Amino acid sequence: MAMDASEETLRRAMADKQAAVDFQGNTVRDLKVSGAAKADIDAAVEALNALKLEKSSIEKQLQAAITGGSRAGSLSRDAFRQAVGNTLERRLFYIPSFKIYRGVAGLYDYGPPGCAVKANVLAFWRQHFVLEENMLEVDCPCVTPEVVLKASGHVDKFTDLMVKDEKTGTCYRADHLLKDFCKDKLEKDLSMPAEKAAELKNILAVLDEFSAEELGAKIKEYGITAPETKNPLSDPYPFNLMFQTSIGPSGLISGFMRPETAQGIFVNFKDLYYFNGNKLPFAAAQIGQAFRNEISPRQGLLRVREFTLAEIEHFVDPEDKSHPKFIDVAHLEFLMFPRKEQTSGQSAKRMCIGDAVSEGIVNNQTLGYFIARVYLFLTQLGIDKERLRFRQHLANEMAHYAADCWDAEIECSYGWIECVGIADRSAYDLRAHSEKSGVSLVAQEKFSEPKEVEKLVIAPTKKELGLAFKANQKNVLEALEAMDEKEAMEMKSALESQGEVEFHVCTLGKAVTIKKNMVTISKETKKEYQRVFTPSVIEPSFGIGRIIYCLYEHSFYTRPSKAGDEQLNVFRFPSLVAPIKCTVFPLVQNQQYEQIAKQISLSLTAAGISHKIDITGTSIGKRYARTDELGVPLAITVDSTSSVTIRERDSKDQIRVSIEAVASVVKEVTDGSSTWTDVMWRFPTHTNASTDE
Amino acid sequence: MAMDASEETLRRAMADKQAAVDFQGNTVRDLKVSGAAKADIDAAVEALNALKLEKSSIEKQLQAAITGGSRAGSLSRDAFRQAVGNTLERRLFYIPSFKIYRGVAGLYDYGPPGCAVKANVLAFWRQHFVLEENMLEVDCPCVTPEVVLKASGHVDKFTDLMVKDEKTGTCYRADHLLKDFCKDKLEKDLSMPAEKAAELKNILAVLDEFSAEELGAKIKEYGITAPETKNPLSDPYPFNLMFQTSIGPSGLISGFMRPETAQGIFVNFKDLYYFNGNKLPFAAAQIGQAFRNEISPRQGLLRVREFTLAEIEHFVDPEDKSHPKFIDVAHLEFLMFPRKEQTSGQSAKRMCIGDAVSEGIVNNQTLGYFIARVYLFLTQLGIDKERLRFRQHLANEMAHYAADCWDAEIECSYGWIECVGIADRSAYDLRAHSEKSGVSLVAQEKFSEPKEVEKLVIAPTKKELGLAFKANQKNVLEALEAMDEKEAMEMKSALESQGEVEFHVCTLGKAVTIKKNMVTISKETKKEYQRVFTPSVIEPSFGIGRIIYCLYEHSFYTRPSKAGDEQLNVFRFPSLVAPIKCTVFPLVQNQQYEQIAKQISLSLTAAGISHKIDITGTSIGKRYARTDELGVPLAITVDSTSSVTIRERDSKDQIRVSIEAVASVVKEVTDGSSTWTDVMWRFPTHTNASTDE
């Protein structure tokens, strides 16, 4: 996140100009004090004003550079977010949870249309991933005993750094306060030296990596205080983000609400591997609630305390991460943002996933395959492909065990938001649970013919060790057996040449002398019939709520009403996602039309098309506006007893279709077997003004 | 739960016979002691043995009567449960959660086939209820702040009574211990007096209503101790069954994991009513996780600590609970178990729901409509209609505010299990949240013409009250205004006749004297344009996991293998529920057949049919057995390059179908548009022994 060249230039110019203004100001003052000639003073004032004008011009350019375009752009981004948010809340796509009790930060309900959108997104996820890829779906509880999350590392490391207002006790995320401080300073203090600006920009870039001490030092250095009260802040300290509870009546079994669904899959590896006929690769999947007790949730629907995750754990032989179906997606091109482009200040670029894998930018075929499948999933939902990029984690962002990691980031009014993480986590998770549980979570590869392998054999002589080390003999014995090949072979040659060797036993905290008669070290050739190994896991993890929110923003637009007196809201959801597929309106309130509407409704139900009848007497224009605001693709207006009008949401085109044909036309358009343009050719266009908006 | 007539007779006969045996035993002893003649002694012993034989015969009959059939029946019920359970666990329909860490009681995962069954059941629920009834679906968080569950009564009353082993601290449900004691005693102590047996039976019947004191007294009276240690037990005390947690970093906001999904709907009533165009009736629905921290979970999958609920809240005008679609279901007949039949010791009887409503057995049409819809839902899933009954709550089972309540109970190896509750909860929940939140949760009925109504008007004279009561005037004023019509009219006449009256002000804790000049009480006629009221709510609540478990038991059967050497397991799931709809087997491992299997797989995917290819080389019989055990309705065997065999699971009938037609045949059978018998007529039957089991 290097400072933009033009911004840096402008900051330098700004600082220079400020210095020039200050200097010229002094000059004017000096001239006045020394009683110089009026003409000289006037000339100096004129020069000062000219400098001020130049400064103001640079200031404007700088401001524009900082806000990434123009002030107006930034304002309209906020206005856009507000317009989407208002529509979503008014039409109950979502509702702040427990609203009548003034709500709880970070908890939201899905109202009826939101709930339908979510169900559609999840059904498509299941179709696109679980069914098409033959994944093994599981469904595990949210309540999780501590031991599982101790093994996974969440008990010790799933924390954010927190500071407290020392007087009121209000809690803040330490990194958020520092981030806000830097952003605010950069936006408002335009005449700060370019070096200072670069320092703040650098902090924003590396903020996520700061330790508690580093964060605390910066907060002190910049004199950051509690936002509301301006009180001093405590030192930062880690706060675990899991909701804690206890299981059973005794209060003795500590448990947590799961922070992710993945652990439920890992602990079932053995059964699932068996279920899959003891064959690799295979993938397991889970859709379910996850919980994070955020310190102070911000960003509305994007950072919440309870959310739906859909996670895949694809288990694969670490020595063979090829994917048989990679060839089907290798040609796909989309925006990728590899590590190199990020660190060299370039931007995301369009790449072919086949090339990205063959050039080694993406670590392996399986990872590449999932990146491509995620691309297809998101764009088919209606995510704008120009505002979707795959960003590779920088080395410092990745866990030490991860082989490679890419985030699907979607641009919305909050910036680029991580919505799907696709990580090659190597063998970390299965090893962690193997160790903690004592149950071996491994796979076997049977060789078609036995293989000859050289094996290190360390054979301590117990009797000699007992005589030499008495009570410590067990520690020495275990340390000898734990030597790796290099250590053992070095000891062997030392014993052969010198007869004895100093050997550090870490469990004793000291070195002992090992003599030749105490241990035999050799290499033996053995026949092996199978290879036993811990599978690697490739994990695509989907934040369903974030995807849905970005989809709302990408689908939203406004257009003027026919009279031009107001802006109407539209969600251009694909049929796949739309909460219902069509509405049925009798043009006027009369029994005959309502009867036909009911008849059409029955045929739509029989065809499996979700729909709603609107028999309110409001104008057809108002009813269209209402259905557009819910993103319903088609509206059927009953305006005669033989045929009806079907109107498409975005084009507002209308066609006339017989009552018998209407369900099948709606079906073929909404299930994707025909496009609207296809059916437009087959039916007469309708232009009757009475049903127009 | 009156004692069964024959059991009571047998218990009396048993007690009589025992007395006769004891008497005769004494007689024998006396004869021996008094040195009576050998012939006399022999005769007495013979009589004693005859009595013992008779006693033993009665004992056997009694034992049979208690276990509801025969000992063998009881044993086979256990064996059946074990057989189902083994199959379910071996084929990963479910997995004890966190198994590698030795699990947690009451937590289970759904493995791949279980997960698919659950998804199918939920999809059908959404179709049958949400879509067909135009319900408003919502999706609320599990984490719930305390205030909401305080209002609903869960914080104070969602408890079970618990006792602790006084030495080890182990916790038990007090009612379970008493229940176990009574059952055990009744089964094993066959010679107990019939009165004693009746007492224990009565306890079993009224156990659920016992207070902590009553339970404690019985536990003391019977000397019940901790089951494992025989240590004494503490007095029973209430244990709240909600998982507690805290929300946010401060630890100050107490929260719980919701014990039901209903509250999320109630708190959103106002928005949902508006969304529905301010019209009643309407229903809202929610599917989601619920949590109960059971004291000591038993009964496997039936009593768990986390489970999926699907709940409907149907809001209706309390003055009009008719239902426009009741006529569509009024003819349905099924087993009902009304209050009267239960208390008079009769059994459930087949009734027509139309009659049950018109005879007033079921409180209203809407309740009756939902009972019928639940019947259709459960039987279409595959629940045996002979083992499904609707049991009305007894007066003492129902909450005081409930108008009527029926449970759909399904019989399985654990007995009759409550799987769906259908309750008319009147206005209780909305009123509770109105009061606690201060937000009015009501509906309006606009009158077509204004109505004249008489209204009570209480107008206190503030000045006089101030002079008379000084600092207490506010309390007096509020107490006057809070009078109901009866109180006010009594005061009015007292003031008119006596000029003053004693008036108790509860907020002051004393009576004050009210004089005529302090308050004017009158009745005025007003015009009203609308009626404002709190809607009643009718709540069908589905325990999805329990329904699924009962479905497993009702669908399971075994049949001998072809060789007759083993029993094969089959789940006769309807296609609607089956985890996948068909399997595809190449008869032998060869590339040509595998290619055709893939081609068929593509056409099945295109038709939206979930399926799996099994290319393992095992015998076709074994592969059929494997697919039967998962309840897959159809299996396609690829045994030629032009046509294939389709085999139906339960009949084992096979037909030959061309490769082109296979997907459409499978589709029409599995989506229910044709039956297997229908298609059997259209295609040649296949009898080739090679593909037989």
Automatic annotation (TrEMBL), chains A, B:
Q: Can you tell me which family this protein belongs to?
A: Belongs to the class-II aminoacyl-tRNA synthetase family.
* Reaction equations catalysed: tRNA(Gly) + glycine + ATP = glycyl-tRNA(Gly) + AMP + diphosphate
Its name, as the record gives it, is: glycine--tRNA ligase
- Domain Aminoacyl-transfer RNA synthetases class-II family profile, by residue range, is 202-560
Which GO terms label this protein's molecular function in UniProt? ATP binding; glycine-tRNA ligase activity; transferase activity
Q: Which Gene3D superfamilies match?
A: 3.30.40.230, 3.30.720.200, Anticodon-binding domain, Bira Bifunctional Protein, Domain 2, S15/NS1, RNA-binding
Please give the superkingdom of this protein's source. Eukaryota
Family annotation (InterPro entries): aa-tRNA-synt_IIb (IPR002314), aa-tRNA-synth_II (IPR006195), aa-tRNA-synth_II/BPL/LPL (IPR045864), Anticodon-bd (IPR004154), Anticodon-bd_dom_sf (IPR036621), Gly-tRNA_synthase/POLG2 (IPR027031), GlyRS-like_core (IPR033731), tRNA-synt_gly (IPR002315)
Which Gene Ontology terms describe the biological processes this protein takes part in?
mitochondrial glycyl-tRNA aminoacylation
What organism is recorded for this protein? Protea cynaroides
Instruction: Return the CDD domains for the record.
Output: GlyRS-like_core
**Catalytic activity, EC:** 6.1.1.14
